[in-house]
Amino acid sequence: MTSIEKFLQNAVTPWMGSRGEHSDIVLSTRIRLARNLAGHRFPLDFSREEAEDVERQAAAVLTGEDNSFSCIPMDSMPALKRQVLVEKHLISPQLADPERPGTVILSDDESISIMINEEDHIRIQVIYPGLHLMEAYEQADELDDRLEAKLPYAFDGDFGYITSCPTNTGTGLRASVMLHLPALSMTNNMGRIAQAVSRLGMVVRGSYGEGSDALGNVYQVSNQITLGKSERDILKDLLDLTERLIEQEERARRALLERTSVKLEDRIWRSYGILSNARVLATDEAATRLSDVRLGIDLGIIEGVDVSVLNELMIFMQPAFLQQFAGETLQPGERDVFRAKLIRERIGMERGMEDKTEE
Amino acid sequence: MICDHCHERPASVVVTQSKNGKTQERHLCDVCAAHFHPFQGDFGNDPFGIQQFLSNWIVGAAAQQAGRPQTVEEGAECPTCGLTFKRFLERGKFGCPDCYSAFREELPQVFRKVQNGHVEHTGKVPESFSGRVAAERKIAELRGLMQEAIGSEEFEEAARVRDEIRQLERSLAEGGDQVDLD
Ligand SMILES: [Zn+2]
Ligand SMILES: [Zn+2]
């Protein structure tokens, strides 16, 4: 087995897969529920004892009755492992801070991660590949019921679920969808869209940055309001918006194909050439090229490369994954070399498989 | 690009700040961004984010109450964690679940701004909570019945209702999720 195969075996998570509805445009769906326990100060102010008590209570509910969850305290993990979980979006950078008492309870397939003692005592997170808002919510809701049956949740008759930050109060629900919108970005439509979306009480941002300069044209759309709307309404509004964005992206792709077919093909194949051959790749360039190639696959211009490879590479080209792949600490300059190597080998692997099936 | 603050992690967030009419851009990593701009994640590029709103509110409130003693300016204080309403506005985070009761009068104003005009929860209610509310309502209703029974000298009935009330109160004290309400 080559080093890259070994690495992939341990690193791929189901939500990076390419199954799921609208999976050409929607990379993943995420649901997060913020919950807190009565009688304990929030993590910003609480004591070690309170932190341990919260952790003990939550862990007892989930790891007690079935063994598909494992409970991993942050201080039991080396820094690189924590960073890998951040890059997989399974925990937040705040939780990974070794100065704070934090724990993650992870399901075996990594589709569920429950962050203990992040900004709130409990944050239930469910990630699905593709567009699955309702299914992901139902899974989170069911876990919430299980926790609620055993734990003294802080809940207020007027304000709903009590959270550390007033922007989460009420449902404590943050639903988000990750979208790959290369055609809307190329046609300079994202600024206009971001403005229109904010008027709907929702927000669009680059999933690895802010605003219009989204890395790899990947955007995260999520609800901003958590109070005064039911969970169903929040999810339905986000679903409506997502479907409209998918429609607009598809229309923009068709227009690009009709108007600038040769230029578009050229750009896509150039990017493919760079990813297959480059020896040094910085993050932004890699992301832009991966976006192009992904678009090429979606449009049928490039054949024989699975879209899930691109999903994986967007995650694996981040610093902690690269260092895990390299098996050593890398300086920023060295990372660019390993990033190029990882991408080259992974795409080469795909091509190799294609050659074999053709024989 | 490397984070402007810690010079360690790669910058992933651009934070735009307006100060005295000048706009300044800072490139921060996730960790530093979450630390300095706790609302950034939720508010995106909204220049009228919660922090600005809350700090304007403090200035306004301080000006209004310039003649009054210090204690008024601090606002209500949470009896459990000691956080004052003023401090809450400054940092934008509550201290503990009891802060919600301590600041109840002022909170609709806060939520009206940060939740697009919404002030009341209309979503999911935990079963234990709805059970508790229902049990409390039932107890109030039974107390009325008991008074009526006493008023009309039906002491046997009054004693029966009293026992029922006691039973409900006991199960509430034990956690409330075992309350039997028929
Ligand atoms: Zn930093
Ligand atoms: Zn408090």
| Dominant shape of chain B | elongated
Give the N-terminus to C-terminus distance of chain B in angstroms: 65 Å
Low-confidence segments of chain B: 37-48, 66-72
What assembly state would you assign to the polypeptide chains in this entry? heterodimer
In total, how many beta strands of chain A? 10
Describe the biggest sheet of chain A? 8 strands, antiparallel
What is the number of helices of chain B?
A: 9
Total beta-strand segments of chain B:
2
Low-pLDDT residue spans of chain A: none
Order of helices and strands of chain B: EEHHHHHHHHH
Brief account:
Chain B: InterPro entries: UVR_dom, UVR_dom_sf, YacH. Chain A has 359 residues and is α+β, with helices and mostly antiparallel strands.
Describe this structure as you would to a colleague.
The complex is a heterodimer of chains A (359) and B (182). Chain A has helices at 3-11, 48-65, 79-87, 93-96, 133-150, 182-186, 190-199, 231-277, 283-298, 307-316, 319-326, 332-358, and strands at residues 26-35, 69-73, 103-107, 112-116, 122-129, 155-156, 160-161, 173-180, 202-206, 218-223. Chain A has a domain at 3-9 and 259-354. In chain A, helix 8 (231-277) packs across helix 9, helix 9 (283-298) packs antiparallel against helix 10 (307-316) and helix 11 (319-326) packs across helix 12 (332-358). In chain A, strands 2-3-4-5-1-8-10-9 form an 8-stranded antiparallel beta sheet, with helices on one face. In chain A, strands 6-7 form a two-stranded antiparallel sheet. Chain A is built from 12 helices and 10 strands. Chain A is an alpha+beta fold. Chain B is mainly alpha-helical and 182 residues long. Chain B folds into 3 domains: 1-38, no CATH class; 50-114, no CATH class; 127-173. Chain B is 52% helix and 8% strand. A two-stranded antiparallel ribbon of chain B has the order 1-2. In chain B, helix 3 (50-64) runs antiparallel to helix 5 (85-91). Chain B starts with 12 loop residues before the first strand and ends in a 9-residue tail after the last helix. The model of chain B is unreliable at 37-48 and 66-72 (pLDDT under 50). Chains A and B meet through helix 5, strand 6, strand 7 and strand 9 of A and strand 1, helix 1, helix 2, helix 7 and helix 8 of B. The complex binds zinc ion (2 copies).
